[in-house]
Amino acid sequence: MTSTLTALLYLGLYLSRTISTQKQILSKPIIWAKPDFMIPKGMRVLILCQGTPEAVEYQLYFEGHLSAQQSPKQLGRRNIAMFRIPAMTPLTAGQYKCFYRSKELWSNPSDPLDLVVTEMYDTPTLSVHPGPEVTSGKNVTFYCRLGTATNKFFLLKEGRSGRPQHRYGNTQVEFPMGPVTTAHRGTYRCFGSYNNHAWSFPSEPVKLLVTEGVGDTSLAPTEHTSFSDLWDLDLLTTEAEFQQDLALWDHTAQNLLRIGLAFLVLVALMCLLAEDWLWRKRAQEKANGASSQERRRRFRTQRHLDK
């Protein structure tokens, strides 16, 4: 019985360590910027990083190098670190990532945050052809022009998620679009740039109006969303996914624990059956040995009497 208990003890310890190690896999944090990812030169910006409620330390990396570290602040149910940039410059524009620590473990890195400094160059002009008002199904082309030569242009639509469109060119580029639908309605701006993180002043806005054609069933946006609001929407979506991931992991960990306990019970039963079989076998062998000795004793006694 001692061997059975020893085996169960070692198995339980192994299972406990395995589940504990798996539970210590940390989800990646969320990173975003306020008021926006595009910041005019000289303006301040706040980089926020959100980890799990157990996070005790955060680190911010800029272009792959440690830039700052901070203790978290508790904002409601959120565990957040805030990293302030007093004045945006080309030296502070670039790609940021953050990490957090819980106990002795560090998380995986966040998704990259690309901070852009604007108002670095002259103001480009933006136009759309054949015009700002078209029927759905038609093709349109945006033209972005900058008097001073550059090497890259960006076109952004206010309220649109995802990365801005970009084209390479010296003084003017084209952004073809279409066939357009009512979902293309909105306000557009363009920027010139010498790199991905230092942009010109924004162009004057150009509003594209797409009227419904015959048979057009596409849905038009019903609300205007600013760039700043867009980051809040992205944050809410990402945070919901983050919480879902945590719930999914808790559910998985519980299933692993149940499977482990069931396996432990099965092994215990097998050990008990093996122990019982060995005990019966030894008892039988002992009984057979005693019977053989008794027969030999009787045989010797009988031979002695015959003599």
TrEMBL record:
Organism: Neomonachus schauinslandi (Hawaiian monk seal)
Entry-linked InterPro entries: Ig-like_dom_sf (IPR036179), Ig-like_fold (IPR013783), Ig-like_Receptors_ImmuneReg (IPR050412), Ig_sub (IPR003599), Immunoglobulin_dom (IPR013151)
Family per record: Belongs to the natural cytotoxicity receptor (NCR) family.
Membrane topology qualifier: Single-pass type I membrane protein
Main location, first listed in the record: membrane
UniProt subcellular location: Cell membrane
Residue span, Immunoglobulin domain: 34-118, 129-211
Superkingdom, taxonomy of origin: Eukaryota
CC annotations in GO: plasma membrane
Signal peptide coordinates: 1-20
Keywords: Cell membrane, Disulfide bond, Glycoprotein, Immunoglobulin domain, Membrane, Receptor, Repeat, Signal, Transmembrane, Transmembrane helix
CDD domains to which the protein is assigned, alphabetical: IgC2_D2_LILR_KIR_like
Residues passing through the membrane, by range: 256-274
BP term (GO), one: immune response-regulating signaling pathway
Pfam families (alphabetical): ig
Protein name, UniProt field: Natural cytotoxicity triggering receptor 1
